[in-house]
Amino acid sequence: MGAKLEIEALEKSYGETVALRATSLSVNSGEFLTLLGPSGSGKTTLLQMIAGLVQPSAGVIRIDGRDVTHVEPGKRGIGMVFQAYALFPHMTVWDNVAYALRMRRRPAAELRQTVEGALDMVRMRQYAQRYPKELSGGQQQRIALARCFAYRPPVILLDEPLGALDKKLREHMQLEIRRLHREVGATFIYVTHDQEEALTLSDRICLMNDGAIEQLGSPADLYDRPTSCFAAGFIGHSNLLEGSIDAAAQASNEACFLAAGSRLPLPSGADAPGGTRHALLLRPELVRLVAPGQGYLDARVTGTVFLGSDIRVHLALADGTEVVARCPRSHPPRIDEGVGLHWVADHATLLRR
Which residues, in sequence order, are CB contacts of 77 under 8 Å at separation 6+? Predict the structure, then answer.
């Protein structure tokens, strides 16, 4: 599958402020790529430059091999869906969806068939004669999607389109967007700061931090194999035990990790200079509660949260470090109870601080 979109050494500065550092990225045809990161990470600036709404300070943008760096937005072959639905309030649903096709002077029969197909795709054909003010937020967002899909752009940009919806509706619309992506077959580039949304929707996630790409990979890559403490902390819940590798033990091929006053096992293949500061990443679902003295660390239960399918357990180590684990709801620990913490060594990840 070839590259639909190529970004090469793209940069954007506003005077002394650098919004995006030199960034290169290739997006495959038909791929769903999510730009994820906190506010100010550069994700929206990157999306706006792809759309042509912001001119880059340096670099090149190519779509299907064509340089579109300085091509105006309407001639790039790109569709865009915003968080603010941007529907025309004085037009019916039908006319909103038909607008872009009318601007392109499509024949009447083709226009009618295309609009009906787009409304069917988002399951909104029965609302064709209503006005935006007569629709719920989720319905309006579906119409915004239908309007974008109607003229079949090969690249569709979505700028936090579900940000204004409540949690239940967001989850429903996530499934709808994933379904629509499969049906349309276009390349989707989606911006969000919601890591759960990114994990749900994406083929790949481009995690951004401080105007640059922090890590690029599949949702499983970023969750199971983060390459930095920032990535580990931003994607999913994590325990980061700070410490160092025992240099003396490493010399005798018995390397261990010194943290929280204990000697902890290292994952196989972990290779780092002894004495340097690192962090050991443990996902809560991989930490098992055992009897005191039977695990790698001892802790005290400070709180529990009922999650329905299981229980999130908050714990404190002897040095005050906070740790989170998950356990079956059938065996909830008591507050202030002493427990041991155990895990499979290879389920941990060693990260450089």
Answer: 63, 153, 154, 155
How many angstroms separate the first and last alpha carbons of the chain?
Answer: 37
pLDDT one-digit tens code per residue, 63-119: 999 999 999 998 898 988 887 778 899 999 999 999 888 888 888 899 999 999 889
Give the single-character DSSP code of 143: H
Which residue type, as a one-letter code, is found at position 273? P
Handedness of CA 349, 350, 351, 353 (dihedral sign): positive
Model confidence pLDDT, tens digit, residues 189-211? 999 999 999 999 999 999 999 99
Cβ-contact 260, 321 below 8 angstroms: yes
CA gap 171, 112 in Å, rounded: 31
Contact 130, 92 (CB under 8 A): yes
In order of 77, 125, 149, the CA distances from 177 in angstroms are 20, 17, 11
Q: Which alpha helices (DSSP H) does 185-224 contain, by range?
A: 195-201, 219-224
Low-confidence ranges of the chain (pLDDT < 70): 1, 247-255, 271-275
Whether the CB-CB separation of 222 and 235 falls below 8 Å is answered with: yes
Contact between residue 218 and residue 205 where contact means Cβ atoms under 8 Å apart: yes
Q: What is the pTM of this model?
A: 0.88
Q: In angstroms, how far is CA 121 from the centroid of its own chain? A: 25
Sign of CA dihedral 81, 87, 92, 97: negative
- Which residue segments constitute the domains of the chain, with CATH numbers given? 3-227 (3.40.50.300), 237-352 (2.40.50.140)
| 18, 211 contact by CB (below 8 A) | yes
Give ∠ CA 272-212-241 in degrees, rounded to 5. 35
The number of C-alpha atoms within 13 Å of 203 and in the hemisphere containing its C-beta is: 15
**What residues contact 320, with CB distance under 8 A and at least 6 apart?**
none
Q: Please, which residues have CB within 8 angstroms of residue 92's CB and are 6 or more apart in sequence?
A: 128, 129, 130, 131
**Which pLDDT belongs to residue 141?**
86
